[in-house]
Amino acid sequence: MSKTDAPHRGRRRRGSTAENGPSLPQVNLLPADVREAIRARKVVRAGVYGAALIAVGAAGLWWLQGSTIADAEAAYADAQAQNTALQGKVQALAPVTQLYDEITRLQGAVDAALADQPLASLAHTRLADAAASVPGPAIAISTLGTTYSGVPVPGEPINACPNPDPFGSEITVGCMTFTATAADRGQVSELLRVLEADPLFVGPYVTSTVSAATAGDSPESLVSFSGSAGLSLEALETPLTEEQIDAILNPPDPEAEASDQAAEEQAQDATSEQEAS
User: Is the pTM of this model over 0.85?
Assistant: First the structure.
């Protein structure tokens, strides 16, 4: 053997292994649809394993949170029971609520009606007292009439009765007219002074006076006269509040009110545009 042949003894042939020797070729004879079915089964098996793991995890969470869920369900059931009980009470008290609303409505109607209700006999009594307080012979009141117009609406005239003071600012709810007979004109003037001092009467004055001779031979003469006076808020059964009186004496200016309303609407429109932008 020559030296040149020695190295070739230890060489291995390509495609062979030291342990098993040369490898054999492999041939896959399975059809393609079978291979696809095998792969599909593997995917399904993996999905089943995943679903099982998820179910186990969910069951574990449910078991861990079981007490909390049970407490929540008990609280929910208790709330439902309380709601049912409250609904029953509300239905039972519904007639009481309706009765209260009806009484409140009637009370408002009565208050509104009494606000214009006058003390009919008050003017008669106060005029008689004023006539009796005049010194001298008693003044005989022949006729007396009262007309009630009610509380003035804000913006309307506050005194619809004849008034010697055209700039008067007192509110009247009615007018009184009367005729009487006095011993002289001095008694007539004194009666007017007494009526002016009484807050029930507004702008009392005498419209006419007529002197007439007395019956018989007496030289004295009598004075027949007619007068009128407005009836103030004291003639009402139910006094007005300070707010109501102020609203009558100081009614809002329609033009100023319309201007304020227009300005308010413009401000609201501007605010809406800013919010929209």
Answer: no
Kindly list the domain boundaries of the chain, sorted by start residue: 122-242
The token pair that represents 36 in the structure block: 């696809």
- Provide the token pair at 258: 């319309």
Tokens 């004496």 appear where?
Answer: 249
122-242: CATH topology is: Alpha-Beta Plaits (3.30.70)
* Helix residue ranges, H only, the chain: 32-64, 66-115, 122-132, 185-197, 242-249, 254-276
Which residue reads 């079915």 in tokens? Answer: 37
The 10s digit of each residue's pLDDT in 191-224 is 999 999 999 999 999 999 998 655 444 445 799 9
Residues 6+ apart with CB under 8 A from 105: none
pLDDT at 272: 67
State mean pLDDT over 94-116.
72
Say if strands 201-213 and 140-148 run parallel, antiparallel, or are unpaired: unpaired
Whether the CB-CB separation of 157 and 173 falls below 8 Å is answered with no
Question: How many helices (H) and strands (E) would you count in the chain?
Answer: 6, 6
